[in-house]
């Protein structure tokens, strides 16, 4: 029976129904070996992908660390603008000094209208001391007149608060850009040598 079934296999073709051949024993050793080989290959592929993923992540982290180091080393240096790394402390100092100066002018205008005697004393003090020095000016004023020093401090804080509300940083940036462009255009017009009228005339002989 086994031999007849085996002889009938070539006539069936590629599609064989196992239920119709109950006496035929199919060897499973080859299929099991193939499954094991495929499983081993999948494990190898999975491990290789995992190793490559770890390597790529480690390389990415190394690149990010190197970029951070390079960014820390970068220093913007300008011949006229000074040297800045992370802060603009000198700019902040200039702003505070300017608002101190502006507060002194405001207080002087108020004293001129309300208290001429104090105005005269404060005027002489401002002549002898520079209000643009900011903290140094207020410290010196506090030793002479504590009330005026406190008035200047309150006034400069009030003026700075008003300036913050009115200041448009985008507009200031645009104004600086436009002014730079206008100055470069003026300088270009000064350096360009325009042709004279004589070079454009044709001689008629």
TrEMBL record:
The keyword Transport does not apply. Transmembrane segments: none annotated. It holds the Pfam family RbcX. This is Chaperonin-like RbcX protein 2, chloroplastic. It comes from the Eukaryota. Keywords: Carbon dioxide fixation, Chaperone, Photosynthesis. GO terms for biological process: carbon fixation; photosynthesis; ribulose bisphosphate carboxylase complex assembly.
């Amino acid at each position: 029976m086994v031999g007849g079934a085996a002889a009938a296999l070539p006539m069936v073709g590629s599609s064989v129904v196992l239920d119709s051949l109950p006496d035929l024993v199919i060897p499973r050793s080859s299929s099991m070996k193939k499954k094991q080989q495929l499983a081993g290959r999948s494990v190898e592929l999975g491990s290789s992908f995992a190793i490559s993923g770890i390597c790529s992540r480690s390389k990415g982290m190394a690149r990010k660390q190197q970029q951070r180091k390079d960014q820390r080393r970068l220093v913007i240096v300008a011949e006229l603008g000074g040297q800045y790394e992370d802060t603009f402390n000198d700019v902040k100092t200039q702003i505070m000094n300017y608002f101190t100066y502006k507060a002194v002018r405001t207080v002087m205008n108020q004293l001129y209208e309300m208290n001429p005697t104090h105005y005269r004393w404060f005027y002489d003090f401002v002549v002898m001391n520079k209000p643009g020095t900011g903290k140094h000016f207020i410290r010196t004023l506090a030793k002479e007149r504590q009330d005026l020093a406190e008035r200047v401090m309150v006034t400069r804080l009030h003026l700075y608060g008003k300036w913050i509300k009115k200041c448009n940083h985008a507009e200031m940036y645009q104004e600086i850009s436009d002014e730079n462009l206008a100055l470069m255009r003026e300088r270009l017009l000064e350096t360009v040598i325009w042709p004279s009228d004589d070079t454009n005339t044709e001689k008629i002989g």
